Amino acid sequence: MSCNNDWDPLEEIIVGTADYCNIPIPNISTLKCQYPEFEEEYVKSVAGYYPQQILDEQNEDLEELYMIGHDLVSDTDNINNMYKSTQNYADEKNKPIPSVNWISQWQTLMREFPKVKFVKVNPNGIRGNTPVSSNIEEWNTQATKGTLEYWNYKKLNETFNCI
Fold first, then answer.
1. What's the pTM?
2. Are 68 and 2 in contact (CB under 8 A)?
3. What is the pLDDT along the chain (163 residues), one digit of tens a residue?
4. Which phi and psi angles does 9 have, rounded to 5°?
5. What is the biggest distance separating any 2 CA atoms in the chain, rounded to whole angstroms?
């Protein structure tokens, strides 16, 4: 979950699978400062990708995945993203980024993890009559399988007391 301080509302959660998780190889100077008692080769040997068995067990435990703050589309003619006009991101006056790739990527995740329940959280669920609070047609097959739900902020807060 992401929040910049103790009083701001929760804005976005970035989640994923355990695939490709790793322990990065630290900078040699950092390595020598943090672990002066260990040989450089030893510390390097514990860095790298986790064994596949651990990754498989973590992915097996994934039951629900919440998409919060990921609007996919915009309610206006401009970009609709919490990072708009920040460093390294598009200006708030720019046109929205096409959602076709995001929709396709989420759909691929839904296919790869058929037992995971995906929850798309919109301001008004899918009853808001706005592009943001609407049904994603490409995902309807997942919804009929019972592995996709749309929630509004009220339901999210009632469930997790987070807003």
1. 0.63
2. no
3. 444 555 555 554 445 677 777 776 666 677 667 667 777 777 667 677 778 887 888 777 778 888 887 778 888 888 877 678 888 778 889 888 788 888 888 888 888 888 889 999 988 888 878 888 888 989 988 777 889 999 998 999 999 887 7
4. -70, 155
5. 62
Backbone angles phi, psi at 65, to 5 degrees: -135, 120
Nearest to 102 by CA among 65, 73, 133: 73
Report how far apart, in Å, the C-alpha atoms of 54 and of each of 46, 97, 121 are: 15, 36, 30
Residue 104 vs residues 77, 100, 101, 130: alpha-carbon distances, Å: 22, 6, 5, 21
Structure-token match 């691929």, residue found: 108
Q: What DSSP state is assigned to residue 25?
A: P
Q: Tokens standing for 102?
A: 């995001």
Question: For the chain, what are the domain ranges?
Answer: 1-16+62-163
β-strands 117-121, 148-151 pairing: parallel
User: Quick check: 2 and 66 in contact, CB under 8 A?
Assistant: no
CA distance 39 to 142: 51
